[in-house]
Amino acid sequence: xxxxxxxxxxxxxxxxxxxxxxxxxxxxxxxxxxxxxxxxxxxxxxxxxxxxxxxxxxxxxxxxxxxxxxxxxxxxxxxxxxxxxxxxxxxxxxxxxxxxxxxxxxxxxxxxxxxxxxxxxxxxxxxxxxxxxxxxxxxxxxxxxxxxxxxxxxxxxxxxxxxxxxxxxxxxxxxxxxxxxxxxxxxxxxxxxxxxxxxxxxxxxxxxxxxxxxxxxxxxxxxxxxxxxxxxxxxxxxxxxxxxxxxxxxxxxxxxxxxxxxxxxxxxxxxxxxxxxxxxxxxxxxxxxxxxxxxxxxxxxxxxxxxxxxxxxxxxxxxxxxxxxxxxxxxxxxxxxxxxxxxxxxxxxxxxxxxxxxxxxxxxxxxxxxx
Length: 371
Ligand SMILES: Cc1ncc(COP(=O)(O)O)c(C=O)c1O
Fold this sequence. Notes:
By secondary structure, the protein is α/β, with parallel strands linked by helices.
């Protein structure tokens, strides 16, 4: 039986092959007599799982050797505190500049206020977060410890298709990106990034693991009040095992990384293959929305997200009927976030093109039926 297509923004659909492999290994991992959940994180078996996961992730994202990969806990929102706790003191003023392009970067800026002089350098709020403010106009401060942005706003569907070159803007601060809903959907230009963080529950694996990729020179500057378990230096020195890591989540992430490495699209493989597929999936849905009379996506074309596509019905009284009909066709979790309403289709790596085609077919039928 085919599984339904799951458009959840997160926790989100996982590749079916990964779920099947995890199910097959649930009671006995590789003849060890133990399931992964039952293993000591200090034992050889789990250490090999964790090391392989890190190696595969490094390969997939071409992480340079001077960056550390940390598997942490607490999700994206905990990182909103953990990043300033570790990086605010990079410069004495503890100044932190935020580019706000939607709900998630707005939350990050608010949380950072507790740990220093957090300020909004630019915001898309006037336009209802439907565009990215021009980088030339960002109010970046010379004494800022870092500049933060969310590379894909999961709720508003706004994505940076190119990360800013802060040096070219006259700013020598490192760039911090929240790539929770963008990670592994496309390559990362590490020359422009000092730190990237993301919760796992969209493109990596089950909720519970938080991925942090951080340049080495940014480690070791934690404020004295930073909890030890959240001090990047201690986490890095202990290879993400300062305390018990989310072992099963790391194992599932590792299976996803292996699945990703095996993906092919023409001559492309891994993340490049996923990017090509993600471009095709997003184009299919945006082109349909733009050509329809019923559906509308308000985001400026140059920053429309490939991963999260919010859309409204021009006749909002039809929302419930739309969702019920979708559910009946095996198209799940399309309800938009409560703060923006309408619908949202999340097209993470595990969503095949066929799923998007099934959604478009349904949307067309629904529109015609309504007319
Ligand atoms: C871009 C982004 N940042 C942060 C978060 C918060 O993550 P968590 O719920 O793991 O704390 C989310 C959650 O959806 C998100 O999409």
